[in-house]
């Protein structure tokens, strides 16, 4: 067991840092002050005042007449300029957001101190001093838009943001699925691991999945503003991609409250189950059962001008039926091994999310502010149903414990120097856990067979049906706490915004993989057994993230119309494992090993950020922006971060090819015998149950300077103010990846394979009806199979070339008009190119799905995504109108063909049966990344009536999600055969939702 004491949060170690601070996290004001002749004025005092900050922020112009005020909380400010002998200038209604910079210049005329010139008018909409691209959603906008009220749904409104490997909850129509956990997005070719969701700049996510996702998500009700940044993001963190920062609400000197309730059920959903979907083989569409969401928040003073609080809570329930999933008439009967559809049982996913958060803010002195947050959540999709698992093969995606403690200190030491320290402790207990007895009984109407026979079942995967049934293949239980902190100092002059900072994340992970009952798993093809898998569970993997340490220096220099930004960041990343033990299992009765503690990864890297922004005509309306930046891929205790744990490196499973000669669905052989006997072939991995590692890692993969996966991002574009309040931004982006990974089985060489060509089946659904010949496949020989597996994961460049890049163009129009209309419209057109020809032409491409050497250049066609939203309140009748539009290219289609020995004998040049008694091999029939599903066009609208009573404001709304009732297909059966392209998931039908927002 890990001692939490040795993971103590070292917050105080950085308080003595020399001056510095950020490009990002919070907003800033800057500009130039001149007299009426145009000469710059040094020594002018600038004061920014707003209800969102109790103590005003003050600075003084330098010799060039320039000033900068950084780290301003979002809100509306009054900015005053004063100098003895000149009339005071006051600029009112300056809106500052938590991203970018607002330029407010001033012209001062000679006059008495008692004179004040008040300036009104909208602040510039083009940021002519920074190159970071960002979208800002304040609390009012988030409340007004018809969304699912979580960061994923909001971030998907950004042109270029695309769903990650989990789909990014892309079918979360109107909050019909719990979307707070496990969602990820990428942008412009970034990886899901690169996404960061932060609270005042500190990552709030787990030490898994590269740190890009996890159970913790700040509640929308506790956010004053959300900024979604990409391109030239600051050096505060090592990764690029999307950076979603929550700026928390602090409360204030007056009590206020924000509350939301939304409700819908099956009777409020339309029908898009078209005849085309039925004829394509879909049994039933995705649809909701019930859905409601209650959020409440209140804040105010504890002590006037000294201490404030903000409390928020949320309870969300989302139950839905999953498309195409039918019950199994043979469920929980250990004497039956075939799946027989039961249309009376539909697969259902039930989600519950409970959040609570309390933030206390204390103005300890005029120059010292301390704030802390305590957050407690529970989250569960119980059961977690997918389209590829039968209802009895469920697990619970459960987070029984999610806690967060957050503490921050900020101090504007002087007009030029700002210090800040932020710390965060996260604790997650989560897993794909076996359902509780009552959950299984509830799912199957109290079926006593379900309760009594679970431990007697074997998990079965049918290749032809592309379905797992009888029992889930495994379960997991994971403990993953971590500590994150950052500290920085910012020194600001008229021309410089200089920052130095330091940050670290450390913690550990313990994950137990287990099964209820038998450790066996079977694989069938259309009801015919062909393979057995022996598993060794339970087993626990463990790893420590000792350091994810960064030290950076960055500066922004403004010289007249030119702003130059630059940063250098040093990163030190280290993981290790504690002493590990593993004992005997059902199929490894003699296993009993102990491994001493050791190191896994040791990386050091230097990355860079650079940007140039030029006010092209000196009007503050047109800016040329260019960036070149290097980022590291998100790395935590994911992938190779914990793969060095000796327990995970063991051969913890092995496959046995199975010929069920008597058709009784029982393997007539001795499964403990690694050699061929009876109906069973030899073990595919003879190291199963031994201390011999099944996987090794090259030195360059695990350690060294500059060996971590990384990418270079380039951009160039122009932003222009078309008219007051309306801006256009056009930019080109490119991202090149380096230090990519590959796998090599060192036990074999080219002579251990037979190389052959394959004739594609004839099928009208294939390009040109099929019948073409694919070249460059290979199959291992019996002699090669007998050599076993000695796999090593390494950097691809150690053995060949592997290239990956993304390039494209974004066009964005943003409008905030004085009549209250707010509009955003944007497009993102781009493509990914991957070339692994150098690897595919040698044995490094030994994969579970084999690909023709002709398919090594995987360059997508250019595709365009469109995003738009608008918010407007009709003033005469106080009716709020809003809507969103999302249009995305469909997901890619694959045709994975399980070519059996009979087909290979008749339609290939292999000339023999597959080695080891294998019944089939899986090959790709389509060039990857060339064929897509339907385009998805989603329109969501809201009509709300604003009601005002005293100081309160309520909006009663009707939301219509998927207003055009799209039935676009999101997922299909990718296994080639009679069921190929059968829809697995479609966009949910039009859904109406009633909601009320009540604020005072």
Task: Describe it.
It is built from 11 helices and 58 strands. The protein is mainly beta and 1000 residues long. It starts with 26 loop residues before the first strand and ends with a strand.
CATH topology of the largest domain: Maltoporin, Chain A
**Biggest sheet, open or closed, and with what strands and sense?**
25 strands, mixed
Q: Please tell me what the overall shape is.
A: globular
Low-confidence stretches: 1-24
Tally of separate domains: 2
What's the gyration radius in Å? Answer: 30 Å
Residues in helix, %: under 10%
As a percent range, the share of strand residues is over 45%
Q: How many beta-strand elements? A: 58
Count of DSSP H/I helices: 11
Tell me the distance between the termini. 49 Å
The assigned structural class equals mainly beta
Overall mean confidence score, pLDDT: 88
State the name of the first-level CATH class of the largest domain: Mainly Beta
The second-level CATH architecture of the largest domain is Beta Barrel
* CATH 4th-level superfamily of the largest domain: TonB-dependent receptor, beta-barrel domain
